[in-house]
Write a structure and sequence with these properties.
Rossmann fold; Quinone Oxidoreductase, Chain A, domain 1; binds zinc ion; six-stranded parallel beta sheet; alpha/beta; single chain; 18 strands
């Protein structure tokens, strides 16, 4: 058992408050991680506001990174002192996990949103002795320490600042993977990214890595469009309903080869589908409200081989993709640190507010 400070959410919509909790020792297939940094992702707000099936009280946080402090008896490939980035959880034995597609694990929702291990147990107890839900995205990393499954800890090299790397586990992997792993963007093609927050800007950088000829960033926030240009966008466009006009403005009168929607706004998706080139593909990456419908003319989709694709976590396998992104970063091709602003752990409320106002693209809490 370890004592930790954790940001506990007790009321949907309220700010999490830092409390002292105890954490169970890691089980046979788990490790204890001392957190050094944790990013704030849009999904943390969605969970805080009760729009996902996350039970309370709970510790959120799912872009953690830190140092292994204890390993369970069955863990042979991680050691005390290893640097790890924490990503999402998957089951290891369903048809998707068997084919190294853990983002589409058949148990994805319970393993990531139900605030417990697969057997329903939690690792956290509050000062009054009551259980607190843990293991959100397998980690619950808004805390000085977390017990996580070996499967969602990705070992990384130790020469980079570990506190920077947590967002590779969700938001940044999501945007970059949509381009590189889900759509397999072709060199010379055209890519439009709708919404250039952390996910969208990661998609912009990845489109550059893929060698896209046109990279159009579409948003309403001028500061973010400026940053998109610095990160490789060839065109920046003010978001509007007429995507065909936006495509023409970007020099793509036949439409875009790829459109990455990070906004989760169905009306934008429905309009964007009309601006897909023949064989064009739209990736749905945003947080769409349940029940939201995509509307598309079946002939428009069928007749030119267009594709409407759902994407979770960039379709990535974190164990291989996160080290790949770190190599791009090291080579100067993926400067995701440009998105980051630092906050202390006890400034978690300010960090949430900075993310929600749009002032900061990617807040990271540093311990
Ligand atoms: Zn699975
Ligand atoms: Zn996330």
């Amino acid at each position: 058992m370890t004592t930790a400070n954790a940001a506990v959410l007790r009321t949907a919509g309220a700010a999490p408050r830092i409390e002292t909790v105890t954490i169970d020792a890691p089980r046979a297939d788990e490790v204890l991680v001392e957190m050094r940094g944790v990013g704030i992702c849009h999904t943390d707000m969605v969970m805080r506001d009760g729009h996902l099936p996350v039970p309370l009280p709970v510790v959120l946080g799912h872009e953690g990174s830190g140092v292994v402090r204890a390993v369970g008896s069955d863990v042979s490939d991680l050691m005390v002192g290893d640097h790890v980035v924490l990503s999402f959880m998957s089951c290891s034995h369903c048809p998707s996990c068997d084919e190294k597609a853990p983002a589409y694990c058949h148990s994805w929702v319970p393993l990531n949103f139900f605030g417990a291990r697969a057997d329903g147990s939690t690792a956290l107890t509050d000062a009054g002795g009551a259980p607190v839900h843990s293991h959100v995205f397998g980690q619950s990393s808004f805390a000085t320490h977390a017990v996580v499954n070996r499967r969602n800890a990705v070992k990384v090299s130790e020469d980079l600042p570990i506190e920077l790397l947590g967002p590779l586990g969700c938001g940044i992997q999501t945007g970059a993977g949509a381009v590189l792993k889900a759509c397999h963007v072709r060199a010379g093609s055209s890519v439009a990214v709708i919404g250039v927050g952390a996910v969208g800007l990661s998609a912009v950088m990845a489109a550059g890595i893929a060698g896209a000829g046109t990279i159009a960033a579409i948003d309403v926030n001028p500061a973010r469009l400026d940053l998109a240009i610095e990160l490789g966008a060839t065109h920046v466009l003010r978001s509007g309903d007429d995507f065909a006009a936006l495509a023409a403005e970007a020099g793509c009168p036949a439409g875009f080869d790829y459109i990455i929607d990070t906004t989760g706004i169905a009306s934008l998706v429905n309009a964007a589908i009309l601006a897909l080139a023949p064989r064009g593909e739209i990736a749905l990456v945003g947080a769409y409200a349940p029940g939201t419908e995509v509307r598309a003319d079946t002939t428009h989709v069928m007749s030119a081989g267009r594709v409407i694709r759902g994407v979770v976590e960039g379709s990535a396998d974190p164990q291989t993709f996160i080290p790949e992104l770190i190599e791009y970063h090291r080579a100067g091709r993926f400067p995701f640190d440009r998105l980051v602003e630092w906050f202390r752990f006890d400034e978690i409320s300010e960090a949430f507010a900075a993310a929600e106002s749009g002032r900061v693209v990617k807040p990271i809490l540093r311990f």
